[in-house]
Every structure is written in structure tokens, then in C-alpha cells.
């Protein structure tokens, strides 16, 4: 079980701190690395090869994210990349996945100045044991011992620390719903609607390639104009969530996952479900940080 270090600190502050240490990439393999900021952050925390760090790798349908936390579980460095090598927790392109994780690991190691040797990873609920093992093999192929493989909602809840309610993770490929009672995940479901569907709708409506739609969808300046186009997909997500929480005594929904960064999605989901909906400031990083929180040691 991940340490409950976070309920004592402000969630949005923690996510902002994580955002601050992310090494940006333009997605084309060219890195704009704020090495100075990161190196000073590493120095502040006193991170060295001799101090334990906690590492999490989240292999996503859209984004694969690697986060490193310091000894006290505070964010030290992070990196992510858009790639289509995983689909809904299933490794579709093993070599591509290994190269992707190896690249993220290299980027972070260069900044921190030491080698990462161990990491935790995660799987969506309902994935077969063979696929869960594939995630372990991806890590091992990059020289990382896999300390544990945690299910995604439990990882997210290591950060959120909620006792009762639903954690809804709207990623690229799927919407994962987990109901938490007395701090434990008691029900999970994964439905095949996610951010990719928003991009497909934009791509179809504007007759532009998927990649352009994806870029415009994540551009803050374009989101207001795109909202009416994607709202019906958000409403569908809301009704999917409602189908799973109805009759299960859920009075609050916590939104995580990259798609929840689209402004307005929380209001749409609240109005369709009729349930209070909480959205952290940086929903994209909740699950990957929770994975790293689960990397407790060898
Ligand atoms: N600022 C943003 N606004 C809107 N959507 C965003 C934003 N940032 C990321 N996304 C979308 O979030 C999705 C990726 O989120 P996330 O990393 O949580 O998913 P994933 O883990 O890769 O997918 P899955 O959980 O389905 O396997 C993509 O569809 C991406 O376009
Ligand atoms: Mg995900």
C-alpha cells in the first residue's frame, strides 16, 4: 500500500510541483530541457544515486509518463511522450514501448545525474494477467526492476487519498471508473471512450488529420471554440459514468486523466450525473504520480 503522505498536503500544490519538474518535449524527439531548473530542484532535494528515489511508469494509450519522487515522495523529475504503442493497457508494440520508456528514462537520468534502477508500473482494471506481465517486461527491458504493478485507480487514489466516492480516469483510450469505500477500491470498470474520441470528432468536423485535431484540442487558445463540438462526447462519458455509479451510493466524483484537462468537462459530467464533481488542477499527472508513490523499495 502506498504511503498516505499526501492527505496532509495540498493536492493542487503537489500537482503544480510535479508540473514544475516535467521536462518538456515538443513530441518530435527534440527536447527543450530546462536542465538548470531541474538540476537545482534535484540539488534542493539532495537527490543522489545513494538516496532512495521512487519511480513510476504509466504506460498509457496516448501518453506514457515517467515520474521520479524523492525520498520524501515529493516530485523530482518527470517526462512524458505521446505515442501509440499501448492500447487500453495492452502493449501493442513491444519494441516501441521499450524505446519510449528508455528515452524517458535517459532524459531524466541526464538531468538527475544518476541511473534509475527500479520502478513501479500500473495496469487498467480488467486487463489480463499476461498483459500485466508485458508491462513488467517493458520496464525490465530498459534496465528497470519492476517493484510492483498497481491497478490505475488505486494508484490515482494514492494521490487523492479519498475515503468514499468515485475516481474517474478519462485517458486517451478509455474511461476508467473506480468506486472507493473506506479508502479501498471496491468496484472498477473500464469503458472504451476517451480523449481519442474527442480528437476524432474534431478531425471529422473540421476535416483535418487526427494529429492536427489532437494538437488543436490540447491548445488552450482553441478549446473554447472546440467545446460545442466535443460536448456530446463529454455527455456520453457522463452517461457512462452515471450507469456505473447509479445505485452504488456515490456522492462525489473525482476526475483524473489527461482528457479532464479540457476546460468545462467537469461541469458537463456534473450536470449529466447530478453528482458533485471535483477536478484537480493537473489531472494528467495524478495516476503516474500515484504509481511512483507505490514504488516502495526492492
Ligand atoms: N490540456 C489538455 N486538454 C485536453 N485534453 C488533453 C490535454 N492534455 C492531454 N489531453 C488528452 O488526454 C489524453 C491522455 O491522457 P492520459 O495520459 O491520462 O491517457 P492515457 O493514460 O495515455 O490513456 P489510457 O488511460 O486510456 O490508456 C489524450 O487524449 C490527450 O489528448
Ligand atoms: Mg491512463
- Total number of distinct structural domains: 2
The coarse silhouette is: globular
Pattern of helices and strands = HEHEEEEEHEHEHEEEHHHEHEH
Helical segment count: 10
Blueprint (SSEs and pairs):
Blueprint: H1 11-20, E1 22-23, H2 35-45, E2 54-59, E3 63-69, E4 75-82, E5 86-87, E6 90-91, H3 94-112, E7 118-123, H4 129-141, E8 145-151, H5 152-160, E9 165-170, E10 175-181, E11 184-191, H6 195-206, H7 210-217, H8 220-245, E12 252-256, H9 265-273, E13 276-278, H10 286-293
Parallel strand pairs: 1-4, 2-7, 7-8, 9-12, 12-13
Antiparallel strand pairs: 2-3, 3-4, 5-6, 9-10, 10-11
Helix pairs in contact: 3-4, 5-10, 6-7, 6-8, 8-9
Describe the structure.
It is globular, with a radius of gyration of 18 Å. The protein has 2 domains: 11-157 and 285-293, ATPase, nucleotide binding domain (Nucleotidyltransferase, domain 5), CATH 3.30.420.40; 162-284, ATPase, nucleotide binding domain (Nucleotidyltransferase, domain 5, 2-Layer Sandwich), CATH 3.30.420. 42% of the residues lie in helices and 23% in strands. Residues 28-40 have low confidence and may be disordered. The protein has 298 residues and is of the alpha/beta class. The longest helix has 26 residues, at 220-245. The chain contains 10 helices and 13 strands. It has helices at 11-20, 35-45, 94-112, 129-141, 152-160, 195-206, 210-217, 220-245, 265-273, 286-293, and strands spanning 22-23, 54-59, 63-69, 75-82, 86-87, 90-91, 118-123, 145-151, 165-170, 175-181, 184-191, 252-256, 276-278. Strands 1-4-3-2-7-8 form a 6-stranded mixed beta sheet, with helices on both faces. A 5-stranded mixed beta sheet has the order 11-10-9-12-13, sandwiched between helices.
Amino acid at each position: 500500500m502506498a504511503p498516505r503522505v499526501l492527505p496532509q498536503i495540498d493536492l493542487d500544490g503537489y500537482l503544480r510541483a510535479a508540473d514544475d519538474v516535467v521536462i518538456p518535449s515538443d513530441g518530435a524527439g527534440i527536447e527543450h530541457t530546462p536542465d538548470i531548473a531541474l538540476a537545482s530542484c534535484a540539488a534542493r532535494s539532495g537527490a543522489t544515486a545513494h538516496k532512495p528515489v521512487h519511480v513510476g511508469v504509466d504506460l498509457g494509450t496516448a501518453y506514457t509518463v515517467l515520474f521520479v519522487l524523492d525520498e520524501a515522495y515529493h516530485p523530482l523529475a518527470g517526462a512524458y511522450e505521446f505515442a501509440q504503442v499501448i492500447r487500453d493497457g495492452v502493449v501493442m508494440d513491444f519494441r516501441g514501448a521499450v524505446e519510449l520508456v528508455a528515452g524517458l528514462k535517459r532524459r531524466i537520468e541526464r538531468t538527475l545525474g544518476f541511473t534509475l534502477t527500479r520502478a513501479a508500473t500500473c495496469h487498467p482494471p480488467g486487463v489480463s494477467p499476461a498483459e500485466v506481465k508485458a508491462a513488467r517486461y517493458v520496464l525490465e527491458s530498459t534496465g528497470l526492476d519492476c517493484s510492483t504493478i498497481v491497478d490505475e485507480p488505486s494508484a490515482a487514489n494514492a494521490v487523492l487519498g479519498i475515503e468514499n466516492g468515485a475516481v474517474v480516469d478519462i485517458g486517451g483510450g478509455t474511461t476508467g471508473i473506480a468506486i472507493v469505500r473506506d479508502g479501498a477500491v471496491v468496484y472498477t470498470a473500464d469503458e472504451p471512450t476517451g480523449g481519442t474520441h474527442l480528437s476524432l470528432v474534431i478531425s471529422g468536423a473540421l476535416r483535418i488529420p487526427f494529429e492536427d485535431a489532437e494538437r488543436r484540442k490540447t491548445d488552450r487558445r482553441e478549446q473554447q471554440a472546440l467545446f460545442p463540438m466535443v460536448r456530446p462526447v463529454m455527455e456520453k462519458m457522463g452517461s457512462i459514468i452515471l450507469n456505473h455509479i447509479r445505485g452504488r451510493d456515490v456522492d462525489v466524483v473525482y476526475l483524473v486523466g489527461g482528457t479532464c484537462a479540457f476546460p468545462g468537462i467537469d461541469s458537463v459530467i456534473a450536470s449529466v450525473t447530478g453528482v458533485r464533481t471535483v477536478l484537480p488542477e493537473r489531472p494528467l499527472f495524478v495516476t503516474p504520480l500515484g504509481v511512483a508513490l507505490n514504488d516502495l523499495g526492492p
